[in-house]
Each structure stands twice: as C-alpha cells, then as structure tokens.
Design brief:
Strand content: 15-25%
Number of helices: 10
Structural class: alpha/beta
Largest sheet: 5 strands, parallel
CATH class of the largest domain: Alpha Beta
Order of helices and strands: HEHEHEHEHEHEHEHEHEHE
Strand order of the largest sheet: 2-1-3-4-5
Shape: elongated
CATH superfamily of the largest domain: Response regulator
Number of domains: 2
C-alpha cells in the first residue's frame, strides 16, 4: 500500500486548479479547494526566482512587487481554503543557471507547493523544466515564446501571458486604428538573435504580409548590442515607416537612444518588452514617448 502524501495531494489539486489560477490568481482567494473549507493553519508555499540583479533587473524588481502584492491580496481575502500563501523569492541574477540553483535550494529547504516564473523566455523555461522534473505546478507569467510550450510535453506548466500569436495580432490591430490615409505601409523587422526573436520575426512577417503591408527589411541583431547604427541606416534606406522588434529592455533603450540621435524616426515603433518597465521612462524621458508595447493578459 502506498504512503499517503499530504503535500502531493495539495500539488495534485494545484495541478488541476493551476489553469484557473493562471488566468486570474486572485480569483482563488477565499476558495474552498483544500478540504472543503476546513480552516487548516497549513501554509501554501510558493517558490519564485526573479532577476533582482543583472541586465533584466529593471523588470525583475517590478515583477517582485507584483508578486508580493498578489500574495498580500490573496491573504487579505482569506487565502486559499483558509490557508495563507507564503512566497519565498530568490534573485536569479538574470541567469538561467543561477535560477535553477536558487530554486533547487528553495525546494531543498522548504515544502514547496508551486513555483512562479521569472522574466524572459530563457529564465522562464529554465524554471519550467525544473518544475516539470519535480512534478510541481509552474506559473509562467512573463514569456511570449510559444514553441517550447506547444512543442514539448508540459504537464505542470500553466501560462496566462500573451503569446507570439497574440502580440502579432495586436500589432495589426494597432496599425488598423490609424486612419487609412495616414497608416504606415512599409514595415521593418529587427530580429533578436534568439529563439523567440526568430519566432516573433516569422510571425510578424507572415501576419503583416497577409494584412497587405510591405515587409521592406528583416535584419538580425545580437542581444547586448551597443551599436544599432547599421540597422537604423538600413531601415531609413528601405523607407521603413513601421518598425517592430522585441528587444530586452537594455537593448531597446540603447536602440531608441540611437534612433532619437539619428535624425530618422519611423512613424510607428513597437518595442515589445523594452518599453515595459519604468526604466524605459527613467532612461529616455520624453524620448521614449509614442513607442507602443504589448502589455496585458491573454483572455481566458
């Protein structure tokens, strides 16, 4: 006869409820999922790692505030089945290897019931892989990269965040809000040299071409690039009126600074990710105005 594992029972519930929680975790507040409202004093422990330092720290600190706010809201509204959430957070230093190390340390020292993800595809997928290996529900809240979530067997990973298909659909929707007489027609794609960068570039090229836009250029750059002058010159020479890219925040800030100093500015710019954090405005001020992004949650 097998041994009764109370922790595994909770995890089994969270696996079942994970999709609902992913679509609106505050919706779990006050629910009676664990034992029909028995009022147990047991704590539900959530492990997380976010980039508090490193090149993604501008977003990581904001993620941490959001996670802490979410836990406060849930606990102030009765927790989950009367059980409070405890959040154990470590700094992943914007590094997937470090993320696995600090999460493994948390799992070794705590009875963890669920893992919440970091920011950007490499960090999120590293956390997902660890959660899958441990049979723990994993909430992937900050990745648009579709391929790893659809091509692999993900049993424990739930993701409420917009995906590549949603971002490209939103791009077309934003352009269609511009009066037709003023709407840009010529598009340039700056492709980050990464898995998600390629996926986004392919999807943008397909979606925008189908919508009747002229894809005048699609050029690749490396993460951490300090010189975007060649891409800016190529965009200007190609007559790019709408520029789309998904740079990490430091890269987007560098690129936008150089665009502002170049004397050439496309009529429409969408920098997914880069324009998300407060660091964008702190670095660019008014020079960061009128750059679109893609925030929000995918409809449930």
């Amino acid at each position: 006869m097998g041994t009764y594992d109370k922790g595994r029972t909770r995890r089994s519930y969270l696996k079942t409820a994970g999709a609902a929680g992913a679509l609106g975790i505050t919706g779990l507040a006050g629910c009676t999922a664990f034992g029909g409202g028995s009022g147990s004093d047991e704590t539900i422990t959530v492990a997380a790692a976010v980039p508090e330092t490193g090149r993604l720290s501008s977003v990581g600190t904001e993620m941490l505030r959001g996670y802490e706010l979410g836990v406060d809201v849930i606990n102030e509204n009765g927790g989950i089945d009367g059980q409070e959430l405890e959040l154990v957070v470590k700094d992943d230093e914007s590094n997937p290897t470090t993320l696995r190390q600090v999460l493994q340390e948390t799992l070794s020292n705590n009875d963890v019931d669920m893992i919440w993800g970091s920011f950007s595809s490499p960090l999120v997928m590293a956390g997902s892989a660890l959660a899958e290996s441990q049979g723990l529900p994993f909430l992937a809240v900050a990745t648009c990269y579709e391929a790893p979530l659809t091509d692999e067997d993900k049993e424990w990973t739930y993701t409420p965040f917009p995906k590549t298909r949603d971002v490209t659909r939103a791009t077309t929707g934003m352009l269609e809000l511009i009066p037709e007489s003023d709407r840009p027609e010529t598009v340039g794609i700056w492709e980050e040299n990464s898995g998600w960068g390629e996926e986004m570039a392919e999807a943008w090229e397909t979606k925008l071409s189908e919508a009747g836009y002229d894809i005048a250029m699609r050029e690749t750059y490396n993460t951490g690039s300090q010189d975007f002058s060649t891409l800016i010159s190529q965009s200007e020479s190609a007559g790019v009126e709408a520029l789309v890219a998904c740079p990490q925040p430091p890269d987007g800030i560098t690129a936008m600074t150089q665009i502002n100093n170049s004397g050439y500015t496309p009529e429409f710019i969408e920098f997914v990710r880069a324009a998300d954090p407060q660091a964008w405005w702190s670095a660019l001020g008014e020079g960061g105005n009128y750059v679109t992004m893609c925030p929000g949650w995918r409809p449930g």
